[in-house]
From TrEMBL:
<dbReference type="Pfam" id="PF00246">
    <property type="entry name" value="Peptidase_M14"/>
</dbReference>
<feature type="active site" description="Proton donor/acceptor">
    <location>
        <position position="243"/>
    </location>
</feature>
<protein>
    <submittedName>
        <fullName>Peptidase M14</fullName>
    </submittedName>
</protein>
<keyword id="KW-0862">Zinc</keyword>
<comment type="similarity">
    <text>Belongs to the peptidase M14 family.</text>
</comment>
<keyword id="KW-0645">Protease</keyword>
<dbReference type="InterPro" id="IPR000834">
    <property type="entry name" value="Peptidase_M14"/>
</dbReference>
<feature type="domain" description="Peptidase M14">
    <location>
        <begin position="18"/>
        <end position="271"/>
    </location>
</feature>
<keyword id="KW-0482">Metalloprotease</keyword>
<keyword id="KW-0378">Hydrolase</keyword>
Amino acid sequence: MKIEALKSLFKKHKELALSHRYITNKHIEPLLEKFDNSVWRETIGQSVLGKPIYGLKIGTGKKRVLMWSQMHGNESTTTKALFDLLNTLLANSSGVNDILESCTLYVIPILNPDGAEAYTRVNANEIDLNRDAQNLSQPESKVLRVVFNSFKPHFCYNLHGQRTIFSAGKRNKSAIVSFLSPAQDEGCTVTENRKVSMEIIAEMYRVLQELIPSHVGVYDDAFNLNCVGDTFQSENVPTILFEAGHYPGDYGREKTRELIYISYLSSLLYISKNEVTGAYYKPYFDIPENEKYFYDIIIRNAQFGTEKQDVAIQFQERLMGGRIQFIPKVVEIGDLNNFFGHKEIEVQGNEVKTVTGELLKIDSENVFVMIKNKKTSLISE
């Protein structure tokens, strides 16, 4: 399917009830109620604090795809895109009917509802569910494992969001979308199973190059059997890690949402129309590895005594009044010539002070700064 057709489908079926970064059970439950009987909905378990964990099944095909989102509660972009995808499939939109005829999808939209409500990575017991694949110490981890065992997927989509610090390679290109075919052994062997997930990632990479050339990355595949993706891959189920990253200026991650949607749709169309054997995996290795070369803001050449130094600012995401606010925090002061800012402010040897007249320092939080006696906002929405 051509890019313009994919973009048109997104525009037509985008779920308008979901926006920005704070997505919880309360946001998705009214949407679940609206689905017709072509979506099988069930409560598959409860979180630590007793919140329901929902499972959705759609499609009649033999190829089974398991998708789960918000394993980390503060990573919601992939959840928004899931509802855009479901709307598209339910509308029997032209060109995508092959997916439901060839595939059966099982979707867990929010695996960690306690973390989603608190806007934290971890669950209510402060456990990272993505490091609990072997111990299965948490109810949410057990729920996912039960679904995996009973549904017996042929493909797994492990859906996440990544911080703004990542670049696609060692260059001034933010990693807007990233992927990984997780390792399934200590040697990170390129197994026949991994080749299958690599081939699907290579297809998504091809499609995304038309939209965000040089802005797609791949994660290091160091093996950790405690991670869910590595565990499922080690059990010979092709598994793909999706990471929704930062599109310039898009702190609400609405543009990234569209790109994740396009990744879902293009990959599912590929699976539905092809017997994916892993034969076409090699373009996966053309994808640059994620690096940590970005800050949200870099103030260049600020005067500190007799020296000029750069100031790196990273936004702290905080839940305030039911919405995520971005609070600028100074995290580094020094020579940052090898790093990039999503926003850069050149001050040409002027001092940069707080609104109370102090020079900036590490760990200080400043919504506004004073540059040449002018009040400047650092906030991005």
